[in-house]
Amino acid sequence: QVHLVESGGGLVQPGGSLNLTCEVRGRVGSIYGMAMAWYRQSPGNQRELVAYILSDGSTTYADSVKSRFAISRNNAKNTAILLMNNLKPDDTAVYYCNTKTSRFPWGQGTQVTVSS
Question: pLDDT of 92-107, one tens digit each?
Fold first, then answer.
């Protein structure tokens, strides 16, 4: 069984920053070779892909977060990280991680609220 554990969310003012961490736990071995991704879902909306990082380190971002968010990975620790800068109220959502193909059961996510 594989568990995805997201952390690092919180309440932040517009223009602020947060650093989200995703731990891939359980019988997975290493995430090396997997394309890891961050998603988000706000009330009334479908879950959307925010960013993903391939095993070679190349990254892709949704237009709405490009130049503000940065995804990275630590294969030795089986973690994926999302650094979020210049946060906007529209970034408010529950953030989840998974592989780019949503291979694993979804975790609980971490709530990010951007409000003054």
Answer: 999 999 999 999 999 9
